[in-house]
Amino acid sequence: MRRKPYQTVLLYAAVIFATVVIAFPFVWLIITALKPYPEIYGFPINYIPKEPTWEHFEYVFQLDFATYFKNSVIVSGGAAILTVLVALLPAYATVKFNFLAKQPILISILICQMFPQIVFVIPFFYDII
Amino acid sequence: MLNKLYGDIRRNAFAYRMLIPYVAFLALLVLYPIITNFVISLQVDGNWSLQNYKHVFQEPVFAKVSFNTVIWTVGSVVLQLLVGFLLALLLNQEFKGRAFFRSIILVLPWATPDIVVGVAWQWMYNDMYGVLNDILFRLGIIDYYLPWLADQNLARLAVIIANTWKGFALSAMFYLAALQTVPHELYEASEVDGANVWQKFRNVTWPILQPFVVTTTMLTTIWTINYFPLIFTMTGGGPANATDTFVTYAYRTAFRFLDFNRSAAMSSFTFVLVFLISLLYLRVLSKKEAERQ
Lengths: 129, 293
Hints:
The complex is a heterodimer of chains A (129) and B (293).
Chain A: H1 5-33, H2 37-40, H3 55-62, H4 65-96, H5 102-112, H6 118-125
Chain B: H1 2-11, H2 13-41, E1 43-44, E2 47-48, H3 51-58, H4 62-92, H5 98-111, H6 114-124, H7 131-138, H8 152-179, H9 184-192, H10 197-226, H11 229-234, H12 246-255, H13 260-292
Antiparallel strand pairs in B: 1-2
């Protein structure tokens, strides 16, 4: 199917419009991070920082950044590795074999999606006995 | 019955052995907390009782919270599916630089952490220094700055828009994957038959996409009802409980009012609700499947 020139223009216009709208909140996050405080709480709004500054980034690195980073890596890396290890075997089993427990296992995956996360949090804080 | 299962286990011993770690983790990390949660919800001062459920349902804000949950879920799901669908159709076209646009549109919102999304949107919605008011004012859409997160209806709209931004990418990815399974020959054949764009969509694309739409709607509904961090960082359930949903309510009951029993009752109720909704979707799905055969 060949496109007519006006169709190509329309297509690009739509794609670029969508990209700009969708990227905007993220771009705005970065712009705000580079503004000094008077500009953040300034009126009217500057779309391009007049005096870009790294002070907020410096502040973040002054905090115990290394510890936070280490914790994030341990938690997310550990969760990812465990998830892959645990999920790999039943995935293979349900694809390659036909057995009675296959359907219940597949449904259990869906059911696990249904719990509000708070269900898993409360038992940590509450002693049943 | 048990005999049959026993025979099956002996025949497929290898497959069943592969399930052991999964089942063990499920029991430890899912089944145990859920049963504990349910038991907690049935206790008052160490005695068995339905008081917690009664309290939750008789709460004056319960009707409002239910209403909010419905608005939040329906609004987010409809918008996410619609935006995701349109963008999937757009990104399925062939054009130069498609990989670049795909990676920005599909990955950027989805990969941004929940809390970051909440804080970023909260700042954009700020009534004095927020960029959204500024843009809308410059475009002439509004005559005065709107208090996005302070007005009840605007706050509901605001969290739904932010959630749509965060969540549409997932449904767009599902649809994009589905669109790529549509065989090219079908389009060519329908073009030979002289079908226009709408007819091609209606008779070729849509029938293949339909089961994916049902599945995506189901998963998005489940996730949206249970989605908590965005509302909590943006409004904390306010103003005047206008954005309080079942899960934010359950969280506040537990960790601000320290009433774990009542919070457990609320979350158990939410799970049952989600479960019933999923059953509904699964029925639609199996009915569609039956029609097909």
